[in-house]
């Protein structure tokens, strides 16, 4: 769920129209870029939610993973391609189809789709470092408020040194992270056991419990497999390269990337779930840590004990930095639009200072309070992403003439249902 846009888009600047046929270097780069963007720190929380409900919800998740990911991101890609201007990004296409007011609303929703994830990673990083110091390094960590402040201040300081450098570093770190995930999944194979088969259904039993488990899994799946921030740049680049034939090429690229992504993530999820028990996963959820941190404490092996938390820290740091850049840009845009609507201009220095202080204070406060990470994903990150990624493109099919050629497909009904179910998970958190 990180940004590789800066590195990828530079390979797709050819403005001549090509016919879709052989794969080009640019296409392969985008396959790898989309794959690397989607597999991030969100993957570290998916096994906990997926396995805690028992075998049947886990199998349902495995069946849904590829179609919900592919059809949703294809829908958003088609939406961006439906704009009349070749170089228009998603906010410009929204304004073209739905008006300036809706464009502002989508900008606001994009901010709230990214910002809560930044808060999630603030909590996750603090918990992971605190647990690593306590259990692996045998060091008494400082008070939580002080540790959280030091970590977040340090990361924001890194961003201030240069965003382009951070983006390049994140791009480099993506594939070693994926490789380590796969190696760790393979390393866990000797620890596989049959505990998950002893709990076929959620502990309470019954169809209603299965439906409840799937209901809560969906927002976490939406969060974990989401790479919608890069879709706009992807669609624009491919339209510049392939012209009217861009949609077919984009669909092929997305399908390849999503098959790779789902295969990698599901192998990691199943390996983690098979090496633990539903009770262990429930304990990990209660501890409010990633699956790697829990594995480090659960297995008495030096490789897992030290490698897992280090990988988790790197992954969460990478995701924090990527989402900080996106959230700060979104907040800057909201402040500038609000000021201009009142006939005022905000200086860049004052704007950056305000954004930095706002992000620091809010991320530090949430990390200190330590709310449950999975509850935050279920109630904030997943539902808002689902609204933009699943519902908006499906709504556009019925309202936008350029999108009506995609109407009538069963995949549209499927994506709409998954989106609605994911969004309604917020009501469960409110009731709780």
TrEMBL record:
Reactions listed under catalytic activity: L-serine(in) + H(+)(in) = L-serine(out) + H(+)(out)
An example molecular function term from Gene Ontology annotations: symporter activity
Keywords: Amino-acid transport, Cell inner membrane, Cell membrane, Membrane, Symport, Transmembrane, Transmembrane helix, Transport
Bilayer topology annotation: Multi-pass membrane protein
The keyword Iron-sulfur is annotated on this UniProt entry: no
Domain of life: Bacteria
Membrane-spanning ranges: 28-48, 54-72, 105-125, 145-162, 169-190, 210-232, 253-277, 303-321, 350-367, 373-397, 409-431
Coiled-coil residues: none
Localization: Cell inner membrane
Cellular component terms per the entry's GO annotation: plasma membrane
Predominant subcellular localization, coarse grouping: membrane
Region (Disordered): 1-20
Bias-annotated ranges (Low complexity): 9-20
The keyword Transmembrane helix is assigned to this record: yes
UniProt cross-references to InterPro entries, sorted A to Z: Amino_acid_transport_2, Hydroxy_aa_transpt
Stored PANTHER family: SERINE TRANSPORTER, SERINE TRANSPORTER SDAC
Protein name: HAAAP family serine/threonine permease
